[in-house]
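Course assignment 3, question 2. Fill in each field.
Student: A.L.
Task: Predict the tertiary structure for the chain below.
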Amino acid sequence: MTTFSLCSEPWIPARRPEGAIEELSLVEVFRQAHLIRDIVGEVPTQTFALTRLLLAILHRSIEESDEPLQYWRELWKADELPAVLVEEYLDAFQERFDLLHPITPFFQVADLHTQKGEVSGLERLIADVPNGQPFFTTRSQRGLARISFAEAARWIVHCQAFDTSGIKSGAVGDDRVKGGKGYPIGTAWAGALGGILIEGVTLKQSLLLNLILATEDGRDTSGPDDLPAWERDPLTPAVEDRAGAGPRGQIDLFTWQSRRLRLAFDDDGVTGVLICNGDVVPQQNQHAREPMTSWRRSEPQEKALGLPLVYMPRTHDPERSMWRGLAALLPQCRRIDAQKTGAAALPALTLEWVGRLREGHAIEPGFVIRTRAIGMAYGSQSSTVAEIIDDALSIHAVLVSEQGRELAAGAVDAVTATEEAVTAVAMLAGNLAVAAGGEAAGDRDRAREQAYFLLDSPYRRWLSDLDESTDISVALHIWYDSVRRILWTLAQELIGAAGPTAWVGRENSLGRHVDTPQADVWFRRALAKALPTTRDTRPTATPETEQ
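Answer field:
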């Protein structure tokens, strides 16, 4: 086989509403987007990378408009995506979408080679196979010897987005190579992000919800130089001349060539890969270009660079549920105002875009979006994959709009109060452990983990119920009452399991006597302080240990 066209060959895993998964070509994905539930990669980060590829194609396929919001509204109301426009666009660049093209293979460099001509095994390409740890994978060694062209295409897209750092093969023609090695330049671009992917009911809706056509002040989001990789000159092993100036916009970032790649293959599939260093994206102040992550202000970077404001991508914490980071997720004010005041955090542009769509009545009242947090946590020196993060929250679109600011603020207040309440029950567990003659840290951490586990599903349900008709003050007291009941029950269990020694107690490190009744009193005070209360929201149960 001398050709594998991504335009016509099936390679993208698409899930139907009934759950069946089918591989489709690029053309078919856009033709059937209204009939597809979502894209399903081998790993969630692959879904994120493939969606960004589809967004880049859609951006370049659709017509330019002086009224971007109106044009977007027409796309949303249409039964299907403008597949004809997409097909015309793909036809114009068909050669660049050939995975095996002898001169311009997709996302690769045709003549890429090392001084010794070596090629690595597929474990370097496939993120679900820990390199050097074959016993931690469900793939057989036979499965690592060869993969299909379709799977290889998916992993190439993923590699350009999420490849690890570390030493790479040294490509001939790359001036950075020393002693035949390419020394670390950091992870691929998307690996630096805490990815935010907004999903609707169908793939058509999901693509359009992430398709930002105008900035907050009405400007086009993409300039004339904001082009995908296949519209630029074919790359060489060397750093691209324009890379020093950084990315030109969101489309450029969606297809940024973080690595130089070349597949080794025969007629039956792909047998190896050469992965070398590519182009680096400076992480500082890309918030006007990269739309699919939240941002945090970095004072150390400001001091180091001598700049008044520096924003860095906010990555996901694998130990922290998505809802606990709600303050950084939901827009608390207009982004343009947040930047002027030097806000500590900026929301993802995609969420702000959905808020503007809701304000402009482009999407209907009551519309629910599924907001996914997708990212990769890396190991030592970012040279290995430690964990892949995939979490999601379903919220009404009004929460990210100007009309929903009070709702959003209330949802964030609920998280803050809940965290303080969890700290109260964690401190109770620690004090009981000390009273029983043990150490506080372990019991405190276990109680905190248990409390968040018990509160996780209830908070997600409560958040998903917030809509245009919600009285946030009433909703907050309902939530606080739920937290109070859940944590009171947990506290009773902790007190009951403390044992008779804890009732006698002992002195803590501060010289204060701690026993079960005293720990209970401290807990009650801390819980009352954490959770606002009214005459209508009282605890329905109290521990029997109070004296």
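Instructor remarks: The two ends are 81 Å apart (CA to CA). The chain is about 35% helix and 15% strand.
Grade: pending
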